[in-house]
Every structure is written in C-alpha cells, then in structure tokens.
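Hi all, posting the design record for the shared folder.

TITLE: backbone redesign
STEP: 1 of 1
STRUCTURE INPUT:
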C-alpha cells in the first residue's frame, strides 16, 4: 500500500504534490518520489528513501523542480526493499538507477497496489528488449503500458485499458505520457483513487484529505475505469475505451478534521475525539429514541430471516467483532461467529442466504476484508459493511452499509474508529433484538439511553489521563505484558494488547483469563506486568483469582474495573476506575485507559506514535 498524488494546472506542481503527499504518509513512509514536467520538456524525476521530509529537503521543498504537471508517491514496500531504485515514479525508458534527473521516457508512473502476475509479464517484456532497474511490480506495469502504446500506436487510454486486461491484482495508477504534456492518465482496480477538478486545476490522490486544501469537488473513479485528467477537467472511460459520465461529489467535511488541532500526536487527538465520534455515529442511527437503519437498506424482514451472523474483519476491527459477538448473541440470540478476514477468504465456512456477513473496516479498503466481502457475496450471503470512509471500495460493494461517523483517522493505531464501530454494532444488536422480539420496547429504550451517556463517560475517563501517564512512565521498560479478562473483558483485552504492542514495541499478549494456567502462565516471572480487565460482575472474582495466580509468581498487577469495586485495591498494585454503564457496553469505556496506556508508553519510549515501524494505516495488500 502506498499513497499517490497528481497535479496539473497553472501553479508549480512540486510544492503541491509534496503537501498532498504529507497527508498520505500514513499510507506508507519508507521512500517517496516525484515526477514533474514543464510543458513539452522531459519529466524530471526525484526520489528519496525514508520519510517524506528527505524528498522535500532534496528538492528544496519542491522549488528545485519546475513544471505545472506532476505525480508523486509515498511508498510502503511490497516488491523490493525500500531503496531509491525501488521508489516510485518508475519509467518506461532507460534510467540511470540513481532515480533522479530528466528521463528520456515515454511513460512515467506511480502505483498503489500489487500486480500479482508481474513475473510473467516481466518475462514477456524482457523478450521484447525492455530493461528493468527495480524489483517492483510497478515498473512492469509502466513498461507494459509503454509496450502497448508503441506496438499498436494507440493513445494513452487504449494502451492503459489493454494493460488493465493483462494485469491481475490491485492498482491505482497515475501516468504521464511524453506526448501529452499537462495531462495525467489514471486507472484503478481495488485500490483507492479520487480526482479533484476545479477552476483550471486538477488533482489526483489516494484519499480526500490529501487534496482537501485545494478543492472540495471530487470524482470517485470507479473500479476498472481510466481517467484522463487535464487542467480543470477529468474524462472517464470504461475498459472498452468508451467515455462514461461520472458524478462530481462535493466534500462537506472540514479540512481541520484532518489536522492535529494542538495535540502532540494525531493519536492523542483522536483519543480525545472519541466522545464526538461516538455521539455522531449514535445520532446518525438513533432518531427520536428509536433505531433508524433505513440508510443501510437492511429491512426488518431481512433481520427476521437471519439464521447466523459471521463478522469478518482484521486487527482492531476484528476486536470490535469479538466484542459484538458477546453483545449480539446475548441481546438478539443470534449465533455469531467472528473470523479474521485473511483466514475467512480461504476457508469453506458454511454460508447460506440466511447468513448475514458483517464486514467491519475503518478504511473500507483493507485487502483481506474486501476479498472476504466478495467471497461472502459469491456464496450467497447478505452483506453489511460497517465502514468509516465514505465511498470506499467495501462501502460500495457491500449490499448494505452502516457508516461510522468518526471522521478521518490519521494515526496508524486506531482509536476513534474502533469506538465508533463498537457503538454501531451495539445499536445493531439492540435493533436486531427488538425486531426479533427478544427485547421489549422499554428495555431497548433503556439500553439506547445508556448508549447516549457513553460520550460523556468517555470524557470523564479522559479527564483522569494523568494517572495513566504517570503509570506509563513507571512501566516504559517492561519487557512483557499480559492483558487478561473473561467474556467481553477478553475482547477488550485483545484491543488493549494490540494498542500497546503496535506503538510501544513491547511484547504483549491478550489471554482469556481462565486460559493462562494452560501454558502461558509459565512466562510470568518477577515484575511481568499483568493488566486485568474486570467489568463483568459475574466474572469479576474469577478474573481476580487468575490475577492472584500471576501475582504469586512475581507478576505486577494493574486492574481496570468499574467505580465501586474498591476492594480490588487490596489485591492489585494499581487500580484504574471507570464509570459504570450496562455491562454489554463496557468495552466502550474500558478501552479508553488501555489506549492511553499504549499512547503514553510509546511517548515515554520516544517512539513515533503516529507512524509505528513496519505498519501502515490502510493495508491494501494481502
Ligand atoms: O481499515 P481497517 O479497519 O479495515 O483496518 C484493519 C486493521 O488493519 C486495523 O484495525 C489495524 O489493526 C490497526 N493498526 C489497529 O490499530
């Protein structure tokens, strides 16, 4: 996965491209590059390894590159290591290998995605005399376009559609042709790409925040379409090369929402945005005290006919599914299984028309989740996507969509999107329970009332964040952490553990508390940190006992429980209290101190909180 951008208009392209790329760094940040051309002159290519500022330095913040048309790229390596030679843009002609300078090339391109059959295509191109400089699949795509362009003497659109028919995999491509100054050609399949056009200027980007500063008028290029972008204008073509009309969409959300707003990191800002994210999501689906899912198109009859629910997702979204499983089964009495998307797509899980497959995804672009959605549809399931990014591929392909209103999430570690997904799944559980007559109207009203109080309770937890900051400073050098809980508390532990490890790089695992004694407890030694989540009354004493088993083997204990369980202080070393709510919704509150613990531990260890190593925000490769 990578970020791509493009600009053509009357201003100098390079500074605009760098600025847009800076908003896409969350998509990858191991190298970056630009190709800019000045009218009919050859394209100038500059690349740099490492974060974007290296490229900005190398080009004097873009001032060293003259020209009003250009493309740019920030990379997350898939084929070939993060190096200058593998950095994009790639060219169809000869290149020096240094990756910089004016390139005598008919086609120059950047790519996001993976070309699965690139080896076979590369062999074909080698037979036709093409020379390859990088290990990337992208160079193959660029050279294949060039091959068709020259062989058939067809224009760029036809050369690209011929290439699209030959390549398998996913891609968002932006290409410049030597013979077409001031124009950028783009194509997409299963990787995000949007085009903005306004007032004599046009922009391309993998995501809206990258160009929001410049335009709010956006086209969502469809799967298997080609776009021809010139100053102020975009034309679209299908695979046959026939022109198609695409609607222009006005983006209404605020560019400020994608900025840090005074917080030290996006993650901390997004943690603090959770009350708003939860409230907005609730307000969009609970109207006048009653659930209104008409926006999703999921009818009451369809809900009545559900025989089983399969929740499919990755990472934190999968953890939301784990929590939702407890809530949906308990409230609505529907059997629920939760599957990792990367596993689901290759298994033969029995699915019928009575199965509702729920795909949960912040980005709506996660490759495994998208593939799982397609598998579910092929097998005849009804599909519902709980998605944050409007217009994303999963949102467009699912039968029904329930949007979370968390706004753009920039930090790689998800926080507000997780909370918005949780609340959406809680509302869905209440709605299904009510429709299937497993719950009275009064009970549904009571539970919806509890949900309405969650934002304010999250704010109260945030007011106590200094205690967690202090605790994190004491444990910054811990080697191993175990997060344990039973039932819903186990689902919360999974998320707490992921938050900790992905940004602090401390080894941590989540365990169902009763399972520790079957092997894992042998890892507990002096000062191993055990974080117990204890929000479920019926399981409270059992989890305390499991924590005590760890303490007697040297473990240092932190307990997270609800206000009033003050006796916990007698057993554990440090206690965190959270407000009470209905037990089904405790995940929404208990996760907040766990997010803060992960955040402050990462800060105390001096790490790059928002862009942890080896990760990217949107995982659009398998
Ligand atoms: O965009 P998605 O919700 O589909 O992403 C799924 C996971 O990649 C994501 O939740 C990931 O685990 C986060 N880094 C967790 O903080």
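Okay, here is what came back for every position:
SEQUENCE:
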């Amino acid at each position: 996965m990578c970020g791509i951008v493009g600009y053509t208009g009357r201003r100098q392209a390079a500074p605009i491209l760098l600025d847009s790329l800076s908003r896409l760094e969350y998509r990858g940040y191991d190298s970056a590059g630009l190709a800019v051309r000045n009218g009919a002159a050859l394209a100038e290519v500059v690349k740099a390894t490492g974060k974007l500022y290296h490229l900005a330095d190398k080009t004097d913040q873009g001032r060293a590159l003259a020209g009003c048309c250009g493309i740019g790229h920030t990379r997350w390596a898939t084929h070939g290591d993060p190096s200058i030679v593998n950095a994009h843009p790639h060219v169809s002609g000869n290149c020096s290998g240094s990756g910089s300078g004016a390139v005598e090339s008919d086609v120059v391109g950047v790519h996001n995605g993976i070309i699965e059959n690139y080896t076979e295509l590369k062999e074909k191109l080698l037979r036709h005399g093409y020379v390859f400089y990088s290990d990337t699949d992208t160079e193959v795509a660029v050279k294949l376009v060039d091959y068709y362009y020259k062989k058939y003497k067809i224009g760029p659109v036809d050369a690209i559609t011929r290439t699209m028919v030959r390549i398998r995999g996913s891609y968002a491509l932006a290409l410049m042709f030597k013979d077409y100054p001031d124009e950028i050609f783009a194509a997409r399949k299963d990787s995000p790409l949007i085009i903005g056009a306004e007032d004599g200027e046009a922009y391309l980007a993998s995501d809206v925040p990258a160009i929001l500063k410049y335009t709010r008028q956006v086209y969502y290029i469809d799967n298997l379409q080609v776009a021809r972008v010139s100053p102020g204008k975009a034309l679209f073509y299908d695979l046959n090369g026939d022109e198609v009309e695409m609607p222009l969409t006005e983006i209404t959300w605020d560019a400020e929402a994608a900025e840090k707003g005074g917080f030290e990191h996006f993650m901390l800002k997004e943690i603090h945005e959770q009350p708003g994210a939860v409230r907005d999501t609730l307000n969009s689906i609970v109207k006048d005290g009653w659930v209104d899912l008409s926006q999703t198109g999921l009818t009451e009859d369809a809900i009545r006919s559900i025989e089983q629910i399969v929740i499919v997702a990755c990472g934190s979204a999968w953890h939301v599914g784990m929590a939702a499983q407890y809530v949906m089964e308990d409230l609505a009495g529907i059997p629920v299984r939760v599957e990792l998307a990367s596993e689901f797509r290759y298994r033969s899980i029995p699915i019928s028309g009575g199965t509702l497959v729920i795909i949960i995804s912040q980005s709506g672009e996660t490759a495994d989740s998208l593939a799982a959605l397609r598998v579910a549809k092929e097998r005849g399931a009804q599909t519902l996507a709980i998605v944050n990014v409007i217009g994303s591929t999963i949102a467009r392909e699912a039968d029904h969509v329930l949007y979370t209103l968390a706004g753009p999430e920039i930090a790689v570690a998800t926080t507000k999107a997780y909370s918005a997904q949780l609340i959406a799944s809680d509302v869905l559980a209440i709605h299904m329970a009510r429709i299937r007559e497993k719950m009275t109207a009064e009970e549904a009203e009571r539970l919806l009332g509890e949900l309405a109080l969650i934002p304010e309770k999250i704010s109260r937890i945030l007011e106590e964040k200094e205690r967690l900051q202090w605790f994190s400073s004491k444990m910054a050098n811990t080697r191993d952490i175990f997060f344990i809980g039973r039932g819903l508390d186990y689902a919360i532990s999974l998320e707490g553990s992921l938050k900790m490890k992905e940004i602090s790089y401390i080894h941590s695992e989540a365990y169902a508390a009763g399972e520790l004694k079957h092997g894992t407890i042998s890892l507990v030694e002096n000062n191993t940190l055990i974080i117990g989540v204890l929000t479920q009354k019926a399981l409270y004493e059992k989890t305390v006992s499991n924590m005590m088993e760890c303490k007697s083997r040297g473990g240092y204990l932190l307990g997270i429980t609800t206000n009033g369980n003050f006796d916990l202080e007698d057993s554990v070393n440090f206690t965190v209290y959270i407000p009470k709510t209905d037990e089904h919704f405790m995940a929404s509150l208990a996760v907040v101190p766990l997010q803060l613990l992960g955040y402050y531990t990462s800060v105390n260890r001096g790490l790059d909180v928002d862009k942890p190593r080896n990760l990217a925000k949107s995982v659009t490769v398998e």
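COMMENT: The pocket of 5-amino-5-deoxy-1-O-phosphono-D-mannitol is lined by residues 314-317, 361-363, 366, 369, 412-414, 498, 502, 618-619 (CB under 6 Å).
Let me know if anyone wants the other runs.
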